[in-house]
Specification:
InterPro entries: DUF2480. This is DUF2480 family protein. By secondary structure, this protein is α/β, with parallel strands linked by helices. It is 30% helix and 22% strand. It is built from five helices and seven strands, in the order αββαβαβαβαββ. The strands form two sheets. Strands 1-5-6-7 form a four-stranded mixed sheet. Strand 3, helix 3 and strand 4 form a beta-alpha-beta unit. Helix 2 runs parallel beside helix 3 and helix 4 runs parallel beside helix 5. It is elongated, with a radius of gyration of 22 Å.
């Protein structure tokens, strides 16, 4: 009987899993319309008082995305003021959706990533993940690796999509 050989395990492929860059911690979203009169009108005195009396402890060590679910015109200083309350407790605060928050977190991780281990290597970027990996993370990683790797692919070793080959 012929021995079964795992060609994938014996290949020169290096797998890059973006999920490994996922910063641990809870994600929270705050809708600031809760502090606006009728969800639309920002009255500075009332707004400040609401923020002052709010229990911020729920956001301890969290990544927070601020947004406004109504069509209210919210000045930049309002988001800045909310941030002054979150800064002492939250890991990071951004304005936008949870996906935009993830994009910013991944951007920071990818920008500081040491890619020397991938120099002139055959790299496959894993396509499946159990954690939320935004599309922008794949784009940022492609930009970071292109020109460094010998070959860049997406997917799994058994069914990859070629993306880039050095010349």
């Amino acid at each position: 009987m012929e021995e079964i050989v795992n060609r994938v395990a014996n290949s020169k492929l290096k797998t890059f899993n973006l999920e490994d860059l996922y910063p641990a911690g809870k994600r929270e979203q705050i809708d600031i319309s809760q502090w606006l009169t009728e969800g639309f009108i920002l009255r500075e005195k009332d707004f400040r008082e609401s923020l002052k009396n709010y229990d911020w402890s729920a956001y301890n060590d969290a990544y927070v995305a601020l947004h406004c679910s109504t069509n209210a015109i919210v000045p930049a200083w309002a988001y800045m003021l909310v941030t002054t309350y979150l800064q002492p407790v939250a890991k990071k605060v951004v304005v936008g959706s949870l996906e935009e928050l993830e994009t910013i977190l991944y951007t920071e991780q990818i920008q500081t990533l040491d890619v020397t281990a991938y120099q002139d290597e055959y790299v496959i970027v894993k396509g499946c993940s159990n954690k939320p990996v935004p599309q922008n993370a794949y784009i940022l990683l492609t930009q970071k690796l292109q020109g460094i790797v010998k070959s860049l692919m997406f997917g799994e070793a058994c069914s990859s999509v070629p993306l880039y080959k050095s010349k």
